[in-house]
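sry for the spam today, last one i promise. struct tokens for design, 163 residues
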């Protein structure tokens, strides 16, 4: 077990497989698993400051594809959620989402509620491509703002990004 885990971690280590590891971390963090991709993005930028835009774009794409997977899982899980249909909170949330439509997926970047929001959008059978486009915009802005904030707060952390 230790050898398998060690080889997996070695394969996914940032210095050797930077952008692919970031993509996987961003994809997994968009699912309902509690994994954050921002530390992987910041770590990659610390090691390779010249990868700023490619890293932000790869993280955005990985996270958006993970959100699209959430949408699909929600779409397919329609019958499972039916047992909660009569709860008052559920009804309010569904009304709110139905009013906003695919634009609600702009909030897919939010911690805790963002990933389930994508699944609920699928469950509500909202249009896939508009939802995906809104997810893409929201997640891109998240990575861009988060990375800019870290660079502002820790100006010497990444060589070449001193203000």
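last one done:
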């Amino acid at each position: 077990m230790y050898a398998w885990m060690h080889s997996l971690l070695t394969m996914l280590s940032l210095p050797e497989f930077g952008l692919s590891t970031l993509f996987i971390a961003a994809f997994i963090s968009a699912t309902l698993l509690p994994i954050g991709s921002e530390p992987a993005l910041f770590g990659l930028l610390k090691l390779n400051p010249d990868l700023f835009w490619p890293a932000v774009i790869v993280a955005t794409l990985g996270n958006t594809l993970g959100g699209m997977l959430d949408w699909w899982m929600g779409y397919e899980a329609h019958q499972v959620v039916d047992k909660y249909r009569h709860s008052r909170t559920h009804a309010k949330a569904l009304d709110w989402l139905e009013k906003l439509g695919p634009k609600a997926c702009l909030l897919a970047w939010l911690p805790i509620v963002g990933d389930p929001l994508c699944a609920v959008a699928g469950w509500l059978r909202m249009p896939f491509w508009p939802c995906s486009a809104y997810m893409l915009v929201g997640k891109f802005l998240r990575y861009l703002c988060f990375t800019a904030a870290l660079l502002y707060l820790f100006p010497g952390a990444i060589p070449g990004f001193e203000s």
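The chain has a mean pLDDT of 83. ok im logging off now
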